[in-house]
Amino acid sequence: MTANNGSDAPEYEPLAQSVRRLIDATIRTEAGAGTVAAAKTHIDCAVEQLSESLMPGSFGVRDPVDGQPVTSGNVMIGARNPVAPPPTIHRGAGGVVWTEITLGAAYEGPPGHVHGGVCALVLDHILGATAHEPGRPAYTGTLTLRYVRGTPLGLVRAEAWVDRVEGVKTFAKGQITDSQGITVTAEGVFITPRGDRH
Amino acid sequence: MTANNGSDAPEYEPLAQSVRRLIDATIRTEAGAGTVAAAKTHIDCAVEQLSESLMPGSFGVRDPVDGQPVTSGNVMIGARNPVAPPPTIHRGAGGVVWTEITLGAAYEGPPGHVHGGVCALVLDHILGATAHEPGRPAYTGTLTLRYVRGTPLGLVRAEAWVDRVEGVKTFAKGQITDSQGITVTAEGVFITPRGDRH
């Protein structure tokens, strides 16, 4: 994983950004059936156009011939994946990894709040990033989440740090905070395989 | 939470299904810049059309005037949320809750595998569902995930059951399996608030 969002193919990133706006509008529209049908026609046209040439599997397993990082399709940080927020991952002093992201309507669980599982997704990634080395990703062994209170939709900060390292295991801790303080804390063990795990 | 996917407004569900196909095509397309630009134009038109009337906040906090369930916008089970797979939640004998879902390219973490955080999202929801009562959702207190091996993209089964109940706390256990067996196990404590927590 690198500090950028994982895309070197300039046409795909604006496409994904448009689809992110579309996801939000799809959830929040109150337009009538006629307008919705017209919008659906546009979307189906776009799907047909983009499908004229599709890689056979997921993004990560394709043959990387064009310099796009393998993480471009990642659900959390992939610049090409419209599901990804995607956050910019910062690395601070003392091995701290942090990001600030706005989680909107697409990530809702309890009304007005981020789904607890999305908090888990964010924390899994941020805690895991403390153990990542370039070209040598770490895999989650265990992850424990403690939900202190609901996380309101909007701007959140996620951060993590290494508690200790034992052999191939990195023990990481982290948290999500909003303007009022901590909403979720996490502890995880991440494994850096000596070879290729898969 | 109900056993259906949370939508009674028939025009919005096919719209979300089209956007799900678009998300997959956006990640997997190998079309050239001209085709991508043409598709983006269609998408931006659809965004503009759907945005002619938008609810001001997220789906869950709006005034439900049209019979659509509050969960229609949910990131995991919302029929209107293109990020949601969305699974059909089954309830079996002995309080078992289970679902079978196909997790494709949009949910990728390690190449060819489901992101560990998406496994957490699925398990948070399925374990939580063991504690849900109609109109009285349970909130995640703690959740612990143990990753046995990578979860390949494709069809997975997630299931959960109640281990025990102590007052407002439901202790649930669960797992994700593929055709080869268990990939992730989970334990969680879910709180059913006596009043409205938010």
From TrEMBL, chains A, B:
According to the entry, every stretch annotated as the Thioesterase domain falls at 112-183
Q: What is its EC number?
A: 3.1.2.2
Q: Where in the cell is it found?
A: Cell projection, Ruffle membrane; Cytoplasm; Membrane
Print the keywords alphabetically. Apoptosis, Cell membrane, Cell projection, Cytoplasm, Fatty acid metabolism, Hydrolase, Lipid metabolism, Membrane, Transit peptide
Q: Which reaction does it catalyse?
A: tetradecanoyl-CoA + H2O = tetradecanoate + CoA + H(+); dodecanoyl-CoA + H2O = dodecanoate + CoA + H(+); decanoyl-CoA + H2O = decanoate + CoA + H(+); (9Z)-octadecenoyl-CoA + H2O = (9Z)-octadecenoate + CoA + H(+)
Taken from the record, one Pfam family name reads 4HBT
Q: Which Gene3D superfamilies match?
A: Hotdog Thioesterase (3.10.129.10)
Q: How does it sit in the membrane?
A: Peripheral membrane protein
The UniProt family comment states: Belongs to the THEM4/THEM5 thioesterase family.
PANTHER family given in the database record = ACYL-COENZYME A THIOESTERASE THEM4 (PTHR12418)
This protein's name? Acyl-coenzyme A thioesterase THEM4
List the source organism: Mycobacterium paraffinicum
